[in-house]
Amino acid sequence: MKTGTRHLKNSMSEKDQIIERVRELTGWEQYDQPKIVTDTTDWMRIQRGNILRIGGKDFVIEGNRYENRFGIGDQPKYWVFSAIDLEDGKKKIVKMVFLEEFQVHIGIFKIRCFRSPEKEAKVLDMVKHDKRFMQGYTARDDKGNPVRIIDYIKGQSLFGHIYGIDKPHEQYFHENLPQILHKIVGCMEAIQFLHDRGTCHGDIRNDHIIIEAETGQYRWIDFDLNQHVSDFDVWSIGNILNYAAGKGINSFKIVMKSDKFSESLKQSLSASDASAFYEYRVMNIRKLYPYIPESLNNILMHFAIHPHGTYGTIRELVGDFREMLENNFPSS
């Protein structure tokens, strides 16, 4: 039987073999018209069911990837696709070349951000086999475009994990925050690894840390954003610490409307308590939750609109953070 089956496959046309394999992996019973794509320049024309042929391998495109930011719904990323490797059946994330440029503000400063597929390719090579980061490789299509083939990580983002913890803040502080902070320091050390080698992450966000379902490992994803200012990574870490310590986003508007906070506390809030990155967010979390350790709050206030001090390097931040953990959240 096996010999006969092997003979049948060998006699099938390439198209028929692709159709059979795609149906096997996806369950798409009506799939019968594979289109081979070898030039990804016009990625808006790539559709579900197309076969991406690149780097000597075939991948069937399942569709575009989406991301959920701050609970505002799924946002399509038209240059990023879900795909399946037809050889081993593993799920992949395929990132095409997308070039954009924009500015972000930190206080009075404007920082130019731009996407660089080549930079992401460099980082992927640099972090190969380092499970603190997503894993993948870069392949060139027929036009020389650097397409990144990324291993899919099954899990939940840090943003989604914290957002989904249904507990009062004080209970969360005692039961969940210590473990989260110990995991985050590992993420910070991973960024230090990049900085020590002359590059950066470039797009540090709560939804760019994936908590791997099988292992619980916190893993960085998405390295294609770039700046010529290394401090951007450091300031962006402040947003993650603020989100973790505050159990989500604590905006001035939310606090003012909430019956969980006293009127005297609300009246005590001022512009100096705001985040330098997002001025609508309260960075001085200890005002809201007085059981937050002063040393943790002092680190947070390095990222306020009127900072207590600034971190020149990620190494300085990691040093203060580890000392704070040892004094307030020792490992069990």
Write down the CATH topology of the largest domain. Answer: Transferase(Phosphotransferase), domain 1
> What is the domain total for the residues?
2
- Assembly status: single chain
Helical proportion, percent range: 25-40%
Describe the largest sheet: 7 strands, mixed
Name of the CATH homologous superfamily of the largest domain: Transferase(Phosphotransferase) domain 1
Low-confidence stretches: 1-8
Please tell me about this protein's structure.
With 332 residues, the chain is α+β, with helices and mostly antiparallel strands. The chain has two domains: 80 residues, SH3 type barrels; 174 residues, Transferase(Phosphotransferase), domain 1, CATH 1.10.510. It has twelve helices and 13 strands. Strand 2 and strand 3 form a beta hairpin. Helix 6 packs antiparallel against helix 7 and helix 6 runs antiparallel to helix 12. The longest helix is centred in the middle third of the chain and has 20 residues. The N terminus is likely disordered.
